[in-house]
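Quick one before lunch.
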Amino acid sequence: MSELLNPRHAVCVGSFDPITLGHVDIIRRGAQVFDRLTVGIGINPDKQPLFSREERLALMGEVLAPLENVQVMGFDGLAVNFVQEQGAAVLLRGVRSLMDIEGELTMSLTNRALAPEIETVFLMANENYSHISSTLIKQIARFAQDDAAARLESFVPPEVVGPLLKKYRTANP
Ligand code: ADP
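Model of the adenosine-5'-diphosphate complex:
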């Protein structure tokens, strides 16, 4: 690891569109392992986001406020460049399944080729949350009826339920 980069500082990147209980769990556990954790909200050019980056920043800032050593930021471009800019030596990712591992392995090898001084660290998803994905949550919010709020509470932090339902109500008044 480079001496200029802090091995006790990790960066967790993702789309977080929106943040789920699975994300919160990985971030909370990462914040216990490392002294400092920066969460980076990236732009995935292949996905049309439901929440703008400003909305995601505000929501995540609210949800993660109790975690004192966690900060949330947006970034453009490659994740490894963002990790380096932050002075961190670790890229933190969560894995839910064998399918995730396959994709993450390719990504971590590419990232190592781009920036060998950055180490990718994986945390296994908590079994209570490993089935949760932002995609699944958007489907529940779109199709659930009167019970939508109650159902969403098992998947996303309480702060996210209202804004998520509002997105679909506005789209289908
Ligand atoms: P990306 O589009 O980069 O995969 P995501 O927002 O989907 O971004 O995920 C960000 C990070 O959180 C990734 O490392 C992903 O594997 C992890 N993650 C996503 N959902 C869960 C979950 N339910 N449990 C644990 N980790 C998760």
